[in-house]
Every structure is written in structure tokens, then in C-alpha cells.
């Protein structure tokens, strides 16, 4: 066993004294009463309920609409820290789009021997239907949510690049609205960069990616699987804020070579579709034939340049957990620069040597399914029981290529408001980046997810995590 | 706008209106059973009939009594016509058309659902019933108010209004249909206390008691009551009033879209009949027959609107 490393708290560092970005907040907090703040917190919750910011939990019959708990202590990032993070994210987003174009065209990176061909050939996330397809501006991933963790004053790691359909941006926006509503004084004491322009930026960015053949005003629609989807609230929220239509598969059909939506005046063509439906369900004629969520024939229209699909089908090949371990090479290959942000060292269990190391150190490592998401099917070694470890060992031995392993990082903490006052909890950060032919735009801040259970490292909302408002300060 | 959204707006307001109407019927039934307990059973039976729920009720329960009928109409989730089911359906439609709603309208619907879900989670005792029925009516009024106060006057709004008046006209017609026999001239000579209570119940379940008294000097009189509920443009729950509103809203759509549809012809026919008929002619031709024809035309109109504006594929 490795000995536990000290944990970096973003409010108090390693020293216990407030760090610079938290000085004003700490001063403010010291004058507040915990009981009063807790009442405010309860009020925030009823506001969320009224607004309907809910989230459907799979596998729970009653009370299917739940709130993601909101903690009112903000997570604060300095201007300098943000500068590094945003430059690093931009670099990765550019590299990912270049990688996707390459992978679906000449596959230079494989020819150069930097990524093994098996990574692509044996990967379900690779869509042969996308070979040779060049979307407008060669943008494949239009909206990226980069998951970051912090372990020290200047140590940040990228945990995952969510390049398919990252969710959570509505919480970033609503959390800020709630904070502005509850604590306006904090925003006059601290200069916090705004996030509320996100929907406009998203619309602008999507419109810039419209197909070359389209004319007039750009018609944008958000495609949702429907009101029972766990992120339905977000789909409706974004459509509403962008002034776009919120459509489901049965509202759409292919008419005269375009994807069109059934309006009260007949079928109207769509230029850009922001889909929140997985690749597999997008087109029953091309992918899963049983899908009721997609549009029969949309892939043909797409390949003919009649519609922009954001994010493009097949982007999953870039955020696959096995590909993740190649990200440093990918960044260097396409940008010619060294990666600004660190990758977490990763053992690919498909490699026999790596597998034997992982099996020997299972109780120290985090093991993840290559294609998993949402914190499902994952083992946190140090927190697992003997029984869980041996069960996982069996799964790992049965299908090693299905897993990767990483060291258990000592994730930074930010305090939450607990019953008796502040109490540290582990956090991660998901900033949102928008890519278009005009460049990459990153909204200052993002979604801070927090593990509400003391000591827990799992921040996913599906596993009982909460969220915080994330502040990027204007200056030091 | 999407055809689905048009349908969602229409149904959201229909369901809100339905919850309110059902609450009003429960109120009328309760009043009747309190004042004349001997007539309670037949009163509840006619209310269930008017709501089109008698068969469903009889499948589930033996015998008609106040407590069970109230429970069935108010909070039975397996009854798709109960207040709680209507409110839930309204809210499901609101979620579906969330992008077409202002925050105020959405919150009014959502709050209505949240409050009633809690209030109706347990059996409602007789002592709490009046308050709860009042809350149901108020919540529905909030939604209408938020709609009127915050929504842009465009096609989205027109479809919402169509839903309100469609459901309301339907409800008034059903009340009349169940009670038509006590409005017939043949029983007029009776003029007993029994009839007075019956007539009052009709007015009560359409929220027209006070309006009737303000506008009519004389005692309750079946012919006046029928005229009032069918032909009087001043009463917001009369068939003529609702149909004028339906016609107005369809006209706005025709102007907005620059196209008249088959539903415009149909609504014109219904309006013409309501404008050009006297109550005597209605009685001569048969009140029951008149209402049956109205309900059938109304149903056809609903189908036509659904087709013309592509609510569904």
C-alpha cells in the first residue's frame, strides 16, 4: 500500500489558511450564520424544484424526477489558473477534431505508428459509415466537456474528454443564476466572469457550422430522446435559451433530401441538429434498426451535406477510455506542441504487462470500463471491500481489453456547507468548449461536481454527487 | 412551430380546464348530497355520467356514495379523468412544450402539480374538501392568468386558448346533456323545491349561479337557464361564448398563416347554428337532440384541427 498523500483543499491549500482567491469569500462567510445559510440552501432547493431542474434516475420507479443537490459554497479559480486551463483545453479540442478528421480519412497517425491500428479497428466507437465524411469546417466535435481534476497548487489532470454529448451545462447556468439571486453581495465583492452568454455562443457556434448548401436564417433544432430521458430538462432548457425547436425523432422525416420537422404549416427543413441522442439510435436505416428515437435516412442526408449533426456521429472514437491514454501523442502529432494539460498515467489492461501490474495493485488503483460512463462499472480500489476486489478481479481477467486502470489521485477538495459548517469534499471540473470554423470558445468556469459523501471520490450525479457554482475571477 | 407543440399546448390547457371543471362538479355533487341526502346517489351518478366516467367507476366499485366518488374523481390515479390525473397530464404536456412556454406559465403548471400531488397524497376528509377544491380552481386560474399576462400573442397562444374553450364548451354541453330532462317544459309546471335545487346544481357546476342571478330578475326558470348556458354571449362558460372564442382563435391562425383550412368551415357552421337559433327552436327540435348534435360536431371539429395543424403524423 502506498501511504496516503496530503489532500489539497482549494479554499485553504495545504496550510489551513485561506488561499488568495478565497480571501474575500472566507471573510464574508465568517460573518454569516450557518443556520441562516442552511435555510437559504433549502430555499434554493425549492426554487430548483419549481423551475423543474430535475434529473431522471434510471432504475428508480417512484419519484423518477430528482434534484441534483446544489451546494452554495462556490468553487473559485484564479484568472491565471484559468488561462492555463483554457489554453490546454483549446489545444486538446483542436487536436481531437484533427484526430477525428484523420481517423475517418487518411489515418496518418496510424501510419506513423503513434496509435496502434487495433485501437481503431476493434473499437465499436469507430463508425465505418463516417469514412470519407468531411463535415463543415471539419468540425466533428462541436461541444466538448473536458473533465479535469486537481491534486495540488499547480497540478491539474484531464480525466476524460467528453466529445460525444457532454451534459451538465444547464446546471452551470442555473447554479450561477441561483447564486446571483441568493447572494448578490458576493458578486459585488468578487469580480466573477459571466457564463450566461453560453446559449448565445452555442447558437452562434452551431450556426457557423451549417451546411454550405443552406441559405437564409439558420434553422437549429435540438434532438431529444424525449421527456423520460435523464437529461430532458437540459435539452428543453438549451432549446429554449437558444430559441431553437426541441424535436423528437417522430417530429422529423426526410423530405426532398433534407431533414425536416413537422410544423403546423407543413414540413420545414433543419440546417443544424444538436442531437442528444446516441449514435446508435440516430438512424434506424444505418444503425440500430429498432430505434424509435432517430430519423430514418438522416445519415444519407448528412453524408450528402444536407444537414450538420452536432456532435458528428463517430466522435466517440476520440473520447474512448482506451484512446485517452494516447492523448499526449495525439496532441503532439496534430498541433506540434507539447500538451499543456497532463493526462493521468493509464494502464491499458489489453497489454499483458500492464494487466499483471494492475492485478497486483488492484487495491490502489481506479479501474474503469473502456466504454463506460456515468461512474457505472468502475472500481475504486482503496475504497473497495475484499469481496468487491475479488469480483472485479474476475471480470478483469475475463476481458482485460475492456478495462483501463489509473492511480487513485488525491483529488482536491472544496468545502461544502454541512450541518455544522464547512466540511471538505472532493470535486472535479467540467468546463465546456465550443468548436466552430471561427475557433474554439471556452466558457469561463464550468460545472463543478462534488462528492457529497465524506471521503468519496465519485462525483457523478447518478451516484449521489452534487454541484457547485464555479467562479473564474477577473483578476488575481 | 412544431405540430407536436401545437397539440401539446392545446392539451395542456384542456387538461387544466378539465381539472377545474371536475373540481366544480365535485363541489356541486357535495352540495347536493349535504342538502338533500336522499338524492345524493342519483346526483353522483349523473355527475359520473356527465364526466363520461360512470362505466369506469362501476367496474371498480359497488354502489355509489359520496366518499368513494369523491376519492375516485379527485385523487384516483388509475382514473384518467380524476383531478390528479388531469393535472399530471397537463404537466406532462407542459414539459413537452416547455420551450413554447414562458417561465411564469411553466412554473404555474409545475407548482399546481407539486401542490396537488402533496395535498392529494392521502384521503381527503370532508372537512378539507372545500379548501382543496378551491385550490384546484385557483391553480387553474393561475395558469390562465400567467398565460394571459406573459405569453406573446401568436399561434402558440391561439392553440392554448383553443384548448381552454374546447374543453369548457364540452363540459357545459355534457352537464346540460345529463340534466336536460329537468329543463324540459313538461316538468316546468311542477316548480317544486326539488326542481329548484336541481336547477341550482346545474348553475353551480358551471359556475354560473351568481351570473344568472345578476342577469335574470325572476326565479329559476328552466328555459332561461338553458338559454343562458347555450346562447348567452355574456357567460364565459356558455356554448356560444366558447365557440365565439374558438372561432376567433382559428381566425387568428388563418390570418397568421395566410390559409383557411377545413376546420374553419366547420367552426363557422357550429357558430352559425348557435347565433341563429332561439331557445324555443331548440326546445321544439328537442334539447337532448340539439346537445347530442353539438357534441358530435364539436368532436369532429377537434379531429379536424388536429389534422389541419398536424398535431400528429
Overview of this protein structure:
The complex is a heterodimer of chains A (476) and B (313). In chain A, strand 4 (143-152) and strand 5 (155-162) form a beta hairpin. With 476 residues, chain A is an alpha+beta fold. Chain A has 16 helices and 23 strands. The longest helix of chain A is centred in the N-terminal third of the chain and has 25 residues, at 79-103. Chain B is mostly helical. In chain B, helix 1 runs antiparallel to helix 7 (129-150). At the A-B interface, helix 2, helix 9, strand 7 and strand 9 of A face helix 1, helix 5 and helix 6 of B.
Set down the secondary structure blueprint.
The complex is a heterodimer of chains A (476) and B (313).
Chain A: H1 23-30, H2 34-51, E1 54-56, E2 65-67, E3 70-77, H3 79-103, H4 108-111, H5 118-121, E4 143-152, E5 155-162, H6 169-182, H7 184-189, H8 198-207, E6 220-223, H9 232-242, E7 245-247, E8 252-255, E9 258-263, E10 266-269, E11 272-275, H10 279-282, H11 298-303, E12 308-310, H12 316-319, H13 321-324, H14 327-335, E13 342-343, E14 347-348, H15 352-360, E15 365-369, E16 379-380, H16 386-398, E17 403-407, E18 413-418, E19 421-430, E20 432-436, E21 439-442, E22 447-451, E23 465-472
Parallel strand pairs in A: 3-23, 5-13, 6-7, 6-11, 11-12
Antiparallel strand pairs in A: 1-2, 4-5, 4-20, 8-9, 9-10, 14-17, 15-16, 15-17, 18-19, 19-22, 20-21, 22-23
Helix pairs in contact in A: 3-14
Chain B: H1 3-35, H2 40-50, H3 54-60, H4 66-74, H5 83-96, H6 103-119, H7 129-150, H8 155-183, H9 193-205, H10 209-215, H11 222-231, H12 239-257, H13 262-276, H14 279-285, H15 287-308
Helix pairs in contact in B: 1-2, 1-4, 1-5, 1-7, 1-8, 1-9, 2-8, 5-6, 6-7, 8-9, 8-11, 8-12, 8-15, 12-13, 13-15
